[in-house]
C-alpha cells in the first residue's frame, strides 16, 4: 500500500487524514506535518498517524498532499527541495495555485495533480475534482482519485476549470450554511423556537439534496412541484427575484473565482 503524507494538516488536511482512516487505511501508511508542536501532538493523539518534519515526510511518501494555505506554499516548496522526486505524485489542494506553480519548484518531470475537495469530506460526502498537470498521467490521476474516493464523489476535469470548481464546490458548503443561517433568522422573525427552526431547516436541506441526487430531476421541476398556484411558495420566490438573489449568487461565485485567480497572481 502507498504511503501518503499530508503536509500542513490543518482543517482540510486533518479531514482528509481522518477520512482515509475511516475508510480502513492503516495509520502507519499516513504521515502528517504541522507547524506548531502542539498541533503535531494533537494529530498524533487524535489520529494515531506519524507526524514528521516536512522534508522527512515528503521523502518517506509515495503521494505528497499539499494542504497548506496558498500563501504558505512557496515556503513549503523551499523546505521540500531535494526531498521530492519524479517517482512520487504531488497532489495540491491549494486554492488558486496552478500545477505549473509547483512544477517549476520541483525536480523536472514530477507529476502534479491539482485537487479541490470540500469539507463534507468529514462525513464522506465530499465533492473532489482532480486535474492533471503537465507530467501527470492517467496513472497519477487514478492515484489521486483513489485517495479521495472514500471521502465522497470524485470527478476529473481539465485544470482550466479548477478556479471555477473552487468557487463552486470548494467554497460551496459555505454558501449552503449561509442560506441555513439566513433561514434560521427568518424563522426567529416568524416566532419559531431556534432549536426547532434549526431541525426544520436542516432536514429540509437534507431532503432537498436527496431529491436532487436521487430523482435526477432538474431543479426547476423540483421547485415547480413545491410551488402551488396562488399558494405560499410563489410569494417567497417573487421576493427572492425582487431582491435579485439569483444575480447575487452569480456575482458571489464569480468573486470567489476571481479571488482564486488573484491568489495565483500574488503568489507568482
Ligand atoms: N477549508 C476548505 O474547505 C478547503 C481548503 N482547501 C485548501 O486547503 C488548504 C488548507 O486550507 P485549510 O485547511 O482551510 O487551512 P488551515 O489554515 O486550517 O490549514 C493549513 C495548515 O497548514 C499549516 N502549515 C502552514 N505552513 C506549514 C508548513 N510549512 N509546514 C507544516 N504545516 C504548515 C498551518 O499551520 C495550518 O495548520 C488551502 O490551500 C485551501 O485553499 C481546499 C479545499 C477546501
Ligand atoms: O476559502 C478558501 O480559500 C478555501 C478554498 C475552497 C474552500 N475554502
UniProtKB/TrEMBL annotation:
Full protein name: Pyrroline-5-carboxylate reductase
Class of this enzyme: oxidoreductase
Domain of life the protein comes from: Bacteria
Species whose genome carries this gene: Actinorhabdospora filicis
Occurrences of domain Pyrroline-5-carboxylate reductase catalytic N-terminal (ranges): 3-96
Gene Ontology molecular-function annotations: pyrroline-5-carboxylate reductase activity
EC nos: 1.5.1.2
Entry keywords, A to Z: Amino-acid biosynthesis, Cytoplasm, NADP, Oxidoreductase, Proline biosynthesis
Amino-acid positions noted as binding NADPH in the UniProt annotation, renumbered to this chain: 54
Residue stretches making up the Pyrroline-5-carboxylate reductase dimerisation domain: 159-262
Major location category of this protein: cytoplasm
PANTHER family in UniProt: PYRROLINE-5-CARBOXYLATE REDUCTASE, PYRROLINE-5-CARBOXYLATE REDUCTASE 3
Amino acid at each position: 500500500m502507498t504511503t501518503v503524507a499530508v503536509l500542513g494538516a490543518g482543517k482540510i488536511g486533518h479531514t482528509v487524514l481522518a477520512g482515509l482512516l475511516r475508510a480502513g487505511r492503516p495509520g502507519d501508511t499516513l504521515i502528517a506535518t504541522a507547524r506548531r508542536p502542539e498541533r503535531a501532538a494533537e494529530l498524533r493523539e487524535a489520529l494515531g498517524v506519524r507526524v514528521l518534519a516536512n522534508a522527512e515526510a515528503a521523502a518517506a511518501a509515495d503521494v505528497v498532499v499539499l494542504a497548506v494555505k496558498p500563501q504558505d506554499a512557496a515556503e513549503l516548496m523551499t523546505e521540500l527541495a531535494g526531498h521530492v522526486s519524479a517517482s512520487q505524485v504531488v497532489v495540491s489542494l491549494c486554492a488558486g495555485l496552478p500545477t505549473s506553480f509547483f512544477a517549476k519548484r520541483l525536480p523536472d518531470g514530477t507529476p502534479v495533480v491539482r485537487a479541490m475537495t470540500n469539507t463534507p469530506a468529514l462525513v464522506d460526502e465530499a465533492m473532489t475534482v482532480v486535474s492533471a498537470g503537465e507530467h501527470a498521467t492517467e496513472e497519477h490521476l487514478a492515484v489521486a482519485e483513489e485517495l479521495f474516493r472514500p471521502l465522497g464523489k470524485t470527478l476529473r476535469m481539465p485544470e482550466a476549470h479548477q478556479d471555477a470548481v473552487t468557487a463552486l464546490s470548494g467554497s460551496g458548503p459555505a454558501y449552503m450554511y449561509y442560506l441555513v443561517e439566513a433561514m434560521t433568522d427568518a424563522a426567529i422573525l416568524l416566532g419559531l423556537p431556534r432549536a426547532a427552526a434549526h431541525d426544520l431547516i436542516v432536514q429540509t436541506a437534507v431532503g432537498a439534496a436527496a431529491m436532487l441526487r436521487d430523482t435526477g430531476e432538474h431543479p426547476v421541476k423540483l421547485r415547480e412541484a413545491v410551488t402551488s398556484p396562488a399558494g405560499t411558495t410563489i410569494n417567497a420566490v417573487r421576493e427572492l427575484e425582487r431582491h435579485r438573489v439569483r444575480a447575487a449568487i452569480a456575482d458571489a461565485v464569480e468573486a470567489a473565482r476571481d479571488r482564486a485567480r488573484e491568489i495565483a497572481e500574488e503568489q507568482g
